[in-house]
UniProtKB/TrEMBL annotation, chain A:
Keywords: Antiviral defense
Biased composition, class Low complexity, residue ranges: 68-82
Keyword field contains Phosphoprotein: no
Region ranges (Disordered): 67-88, 360-386
InterPro entries xref list: CRISPR-assoc_RAMP_Cmr4 (IPR013410), RAMP_III_fam (IPR005537)
Positions of the CRISPR type III-associated protein domain: 14-357
Protein's recorded name: CRISPR-associated protein Cmr4
Transmembrane segments: none
Coiled coil: none
Keyword hit for Nucleotide-binding: no
Classification of source organism: Bacteria, Bacillati, Bacillota, Bacilli, Bacillales
Automatic annotation (TrEMBL), chain B:
Keywords: Antiviral defense
Lineage: superkingdom: Bacteria
GO annotation, biological process: defense response to virus
Pfam families in the cross-refs: RAMPs
Protein name (Swiss-Prot/TrEMBL): CRISPR type III-associated protein domain-containing protein
Positions of the CRISPR type III-associated protein domain: 14-204
Annotated region (Disordered), positions in chain: 280-301
Classification via InterPro entries: RAMP_III_fam (IPR005537)
Amino acid sequence: MTSYQKFLQVGIALDPIHVGAGGAHIGRVDLTIVRDPVTRIPKIPGSSLAGVYRTYVAMHYEEDRQLKLQQGQQSEQQSEQQSKTRKKPYFPDCAGLGLDQKNGHCRYPNCPVCTVFGFAAGAGQEGGFAGLAAFTDAHVLLFPVPTREGPKWVTSPMALRQIGLKVQGVDDNAVYMEKSSYYKLNLGWLLLPVRECDQISKIKKKRFRNLWGLGYTSDTSGTLDTSGTPDTSGIPDIFSCIPNNLALVPDRLFSHIVNSNLEVRTSVSINPETGAAEEGALFSYEALPRWTVLVWEIICKNPKYFKVRGQDIQVTMDGGGEMDTPKKVCQVAAKAHPYMEYLGIGGMGTRGMGRVKVVYSGDPDSGQSIDSIDCTSPPSQGGDRS
Amino acid sequence: MSWKMYRWVWRLEAPLYIGTTPAGQLNRTRLYVPARTLWGALTAELARKKASSSGGSPNYKGEGDKLREKTRLSYLFPAQPVDQDWIAWIPIYEFGKGLLWRREDRSREVKDREFRRWLLTTRMGTAIDPNSDTVSEGTLRENEVVNQWSFWGEKHGDFLPVLFSGYIFIFNDDDHDTLKRELETKTKELFIGGDTRYGLGRVRREYFEEIKDGIFFGIPVDLQKNNPEVRSDSVLAHASIATATSKMYGAWEMLVGWDNGELKKNDLVWVPGSRFYKERNESKDEPKWSIEKDGLWKKLS
């Protein structure tokens, strides 16, 4: 049994996603989003993911608790059932910062929320718990860009490294595609020659088929299944067209392409008395566009090696059994996935932003049969004409 | 009595936060990994991995004590990828210049302020109140972190990974081979520092090889003593003021840390990079230091 296990998560943005940086950028847009400080590629910080996961998992268990309470009241053995049901609500108590002694985190060793996501010691109280699940930043894996040949999902060696793929030979200022072209291709406003990299078919067939084709079913059971069928509900044709429209660019161009093709919206307040725009209320904000594919990891520790306030962790899983492995910790965290599909992540949620569908949740190494590709090609290859 | 010295290089797979004194609202990070922090991460990982194979509970105390007895750890310093190698940047105080960072091969040096700009960024965060789905009052915070990518001061270069480089000394007795194998196989990846639940502090080992030329961050090391001993005019770890000479310059710091639920306070210590000051008419011999169990340096002569 391992001390911890990493679970790769692949999500696709069903709406634009705005995770605000909390500051403004003069001359560009008013409300900017969080970026990696060096690559300048937008990302979702792990702390944002952790908070969202925690809230949605608490919501899930609260719904479950309410359901059990209702069932208990209808039962003939009402009092016995109720005595087995926990009194303290999971939501909102076990969500959020939770430092309030009365209404804050329960801090019970059998609470799936407090054990998986941890809790801080309140003022004047002893001991905290770091939590069994850690969330990495979510990075862009594939970024949709308009071209004259329709949308292409752009990626780079640095982005592919996140799914364990080492890519070499992407050195030219060019776009590497499955087939070469005599003509240049525009990625937004950037016009680039097309180089052939037949290895892209390998990425497509092996890696992306593993990530999508043998993926996790994002249903309410939250099970991790590496042998199931992909959950493509809610992701119509666009889902299947992504692997056929991959475009690989060098790392140095990836950031330019992403930042040149972010979604930027402009909004203004309307004065209800005049029906006209409020003076000085115009603002703009940016977001990762819809159909961006993001990747992050949930690193789950083995519950057997930790104690909560001196007691063993004893969380009962839905359907019975104990949460006694890292995989089961991930299963608890994955209860958030159906909520992310509707309630989303980040800001502007009331303005049609934030929904994410998790299309893969599993062992990053499962079923992978390639770990490196080489796109080195003769310099003369590829189109030179626009 | 002898030690074997190994160099190891760790690649940052996520930002790193090694907490130190805050500056106002900003929670600041160190630019290096102290031996004690590394010891804690190694202990946790070894104890859990061994418990995995034995089916029992992790023996943190046993593993921690064994590491203390059988190994000595250097601090880990930022390392820049150069061709197929990784070159560390070492802190050093200079009269009139303050704290500088100098490349191990002595080919470049930069001021601390500049070096921090190369490597550091900040992450802001706030708690959301689940009752209102809005920001919880008074929870806005900002943490300084070492980023996993850097331009390493090059204006026109590509960004490159950030690594950390240092040494581990393993006592050369009957247990040496077993311990070395355990470290090699069970600690390929570690979680170091704070906020690991937000994905921070993940480091992956890129390199682990024995160094036989007896050179430690460019200075000679004696591996035949009770503790490894180095001759150096600057310290590459915290050094106890009580045992150091008054003829030093640099900066002091009060080291504190949690130990089994108790706040443990050390004496004032010289920070890494602090230097020994010599009068012109003094012997040219540099002071000798031993690398102690807790990673601190102790002055010998």
